[in-house]
Design goal:
- By secondary structure, this protein is of the alpha+beta class.
- It contains five helices and four strands; from the N terminus they run αααβαββαβ.
- Strands 2-3-1-4 form a four-stranded antiparallel sheet.
């Protein structure tokens, strides 16, 4: 699908605030509500606009520590990948699981109430997962969210 400037403006606006209605967005972009809605629908049908997400503030919910873990599996193979992915998905403190290429096999984003809570999650839940070998932790100090290229 070829995107024009209005499509890109719609995507930028929705990236900043996905709760905007088509009529509100149309007023900002000087489009009618039906024209804006049709463009949004076309972007959805093409799979470019693949959903809208609610972003929760983990710190305000009591999760003051975010840690990125690099996990290298001790054993390779289809069975160990599937077993690891299934088991890691059951841990609520893990927000994202990314299968990556490089030094580690997986990159996990883990939230915890504090460092002691993170240590508990690491020792009792993550290190006991099937196939876990080496693990490297990086504690998040600050984060700037950027919308990415459109």
């Amino acid at each position: 699908m070829k995107l024009d400037d209005l499509d890109r403006d719609i995507l930028r606006a929705l990236s900043a605030d996905a709760s905007q209605s088509a009529s509100h967005l149309g007023r900002k972009l000087k489009l009618s509500q039906p024209a804006t809605w049709r463009r949004i629908k076309r972007l959805q049908d093409a799979g470019i606009l693949a959903g809208r997400r609610l972003v929760l503030d983990a710190e305000k919910l009591g999760f003051g520590v975010t840690v990125f873990l690099g996990v290298k599996l001790a054993t390779k193979g289809r069975v160990s990948l599937e077993d690891f992915e299934r088991a890691v998905s059951a841990i609520p403190e893990i927000q994202t699981v990314e299968h990556v290429l490089g030094l580690y096999d997986y990159r996990l984003r883990v939230v915890a109430r504090d460092l002691a809570d993170f240590e508990r999650v690491l020792r009792r839940r993550i290190m006991t997962l099937p196939g876990v070998g080496d693990v490297e932790a990086n504690v998040l100090l600050s984060e700037e969210r950027r919308p990415g290229p459109i």
